[in-house]
Amino acid sequence: MPSVLRSSGTGSSEIEIIVVGCGFAGLACAIESKRKGHKVIVLEKRPSLESLGACALKQSATGLMAICTQHEFMYMHNFDGELLATQPLPQRLYGSNSYNGRRGEIHDVLLQYAKKLGADVRFNQNVETYWEDAERGRAGVIVNGERMEADVVVGADGARSRAREIVLGYEDKPIPSGYAIYRAWFNSREQGLDTDPLTSFFCKKGGEFYAWIGKDVHMLAMSFRDGEEMCWVLTHKDEHDIGESWSYPGKISDVLTYVKDWDPCCSALIRKAPFCVDWKLVQRDPLPTWVSKGGYTIVIGDAAHPFLPSWQSTSTSMQGASQGVEDGVTIATVLDLASKKNIPLATRTFEHIRYDRVRRAQALGESNRNRMHKDPESRDEDVSMPFPEWLLDFDAEKHARNLYDKVSGDILLSGYMRPSELAS
Ligand SMILES: Cc1cc2nc3c(=O)[nH]c(=O)nc-3n(C[C@H](O)[C@H](O)[C@H](O)COP(=O)(O)OP(=O)(O)OC[C@H]3O[C@@H](n4cnc5c(N)ncnc54)[C@H](O)[C@@H]3O)c2cc1C
C-alpha cells in the first residue's frame, strides 16, 4: 500500500508535496510551502548536510548576516598582480541583500527554519524511481523500497537530477563542461597566513574579496570573519571524464601549476591550504521543459537549469543558489494560488513565469565568462562584475502573484505550450 503523505504542519491548503533534494532550491520550496499551508516531505539522499566552500546569495531576505561576511570591495587583478579594478560590493543593492558565507552554515539556517515550520525532512533517502498517474492526479517516488505519493513531486535533486527523466521522457546525461575547479577553505592563522609577508594582507581586513584573471584560468580568494577563515577557488580548463565521480581530493601541487607565472601571493595562498577538492563541472543544454507530461512532477533549481559556479557560467552575478531559491518560492506560491484541484495548471504556470528570467540570468553569466576568459592582451577594459537592477530588484512571490492570473489564464485559453516552443 502506498504510504500517504503526512506532515506535522497545521496549514490549510492541504496540497501534498514531495520535494526530492535538500539543496537551496528544495529547502526554499519546503519553507515557502509550509508558510502557505502545504504539507511537505523533503527526501535527501545524503546522511546530513555537509558542504565545503563558500556561497554567495543575493536575496531580498534578511537575517543571514549573523553568519555571513560583508565583503566591501572586490579587488580585480590581472594574473600578474596588476590591479585592474576596485569594485564596491554594497551589502544592499536594489533591495537585495548580498550574503557571503560558508555554504554549509547558510544551508543549515534554511534547514533549521524548514524544520521549525514543520517540514518533514528525511535524510538517507535516495530516490530511485519517479512515477505519475495523471488520471488519479497523483505523482510519487519509490525510495528505500517504499512507494510514496503526493499531489505533486518537486525534483530539486541538482545538476545530476533523476527527476529530469520523468519530466523529459528520456534520460538526459550530464556532459563535462570542459572546466573544473579546485577549492579550499581553512583557518587562516592555524595555517600561518598572518605570518607570511605574501599572505598576511588577507588577514588584516574584516573580509575581502580578491580575484586574479588569466586566459581560461581564474582564481578567487575570500577572507571571512575578520580574516579568521580563508577560502580560495581556482577555475581551470579540464578535459577529464565525469562519468563516475565529479568531486575528488585535489593535489595542491597540481593547483600550483596553474599559477606558476602569476602574482606570487596566489601560489603562497594555495600552499597554505591543508587540502583541497577537485570539482569537475558538468553542464546541460537548456531543457525543453521543466514539467512532466501529466503536470504532476516538475524540476526546479539546478535540476531544471544548472548554474555553474560564479565566474564559470552565471557569473559574476552568483545566481545558482539564488535562482533555485526563487524557483522554490515561485512554485509554492503558484500552488497556493491554483489550489489542490489545479496542480498541472500550477506547474505549467510556474514554468512560464520562471523560464525567461532564468535563461536571462544564465545568458548574463555566459557573456561575463566570455569577457573574463579572454586573453589578457585582448581583454575589454571593464572587468567589474555587473549587478543589473532587473536581476536584483526582484521579489519572487510578488512577481508570481502579479503574473499568475494572466499566465494561467493564457494557458487555459490557448492551451499549454512550453516556453521553449513559444520562443522558437
Ligand atoms: C563548486 C560550485 C560553487 C558554486 N558557488 C556558487 C555561489 O557562490 N553562489 C551561487 O549562487 N551559486 C553557486 N554555485 C551554484 C549553486 O551551488 C547551485 O546552483 C545551487 O546549489 C543549486 O541548488 P539546488 O538546490 O538546485 O541543487 P543542489 O544544491 O545540488 O541540491 C540537490 C540535492 O539533491 C540531493 N539529491 C540528488 N539526487 C537525489 C536523489 N536521487 N534522492 C534524494 N536526494 C537527491 C543532493 O544530495 C543534494 O543535496 C556553485 C556551484 C558549484 C558546483
From TrEMBL:
Keywords: FAD, Flavoprotein, Monooxygenase, Oxidoreductase. Residues 15-165 form the FAD-binding domain. This is FAD-binding domain-containing protein. The lineage of its organism: Eukaryota, Fungi, Dikarya, Basidiomycota, Agaricomycotina. GO terms for molecular function: FAD binding; monooxygenase activity. Signal peptide: none annotated. Pfam families: FAD_binding_3. The keyword Oxidoreductase applies. Belongs to the paxM FAD-dependent monooxygenase family.
